[in-house]
Amino acid sequence: MNRVERGLPVLLLPTVSAAGPRDLMVPVAAVEQILSAASLEPPTPGAPDWLAGLLPWRGLRVPVVCLGQGADPAAGRPAARPYVVLCRAPTGAPVLPYFALASPSLPRLERVTPRTLSPDPAAVEAPGRPFSVVALRHQGQPAVLLDPDALQRALLAASGLS
Questions:
Q1: What own/partner pairs with CB < 8 Å and gap ≥ 24 does 86-91 have?
Q2: For the whole model, what pTM was predicted?
């Protein structure tokens, strides 16, 4: 059995978008740690609505991104999330070595293979998200694959570091 047939280990983070519930697929190789979001600091004024806040971690302030809907109408921000999945940024840039993804529940570990994935012809990209995602179906269920490079560029632009 070759490596592709064995599959790629991913974490599935539940999200809700305009198109309905979807799992966000994050390759395990990109994940540094899963943490509680209890110590989340509010984002700076004027930050995009998808920036849930900043996570103090090992002397850094890691931006936390909320990819689904569920904004808090009073604050105009994404609702609190109990977990964050801390990921290494793809380029390893010293100004943004990590980012985190908000998750309403503990992500689950799965293996994806070419047989378990298919395109999602009914998918629509969520408006207002400056990073692209690829809409898929994993074992028949809606899922999206994040573009970490696009997310890193969006975070750098939002912080004024690009």
A1: 86/31, 86/32, 86/33, 86/34, 86/35, 86/55, 86/57, 86/62, 87/26, 87/30, 87/31, 87/32, 87/148, 88/30, 88/31, 88/32, 89/148, 89/152, 90/30, 90/148, 90/149, 90/152, 91/149, 91/152
A2: 0.80
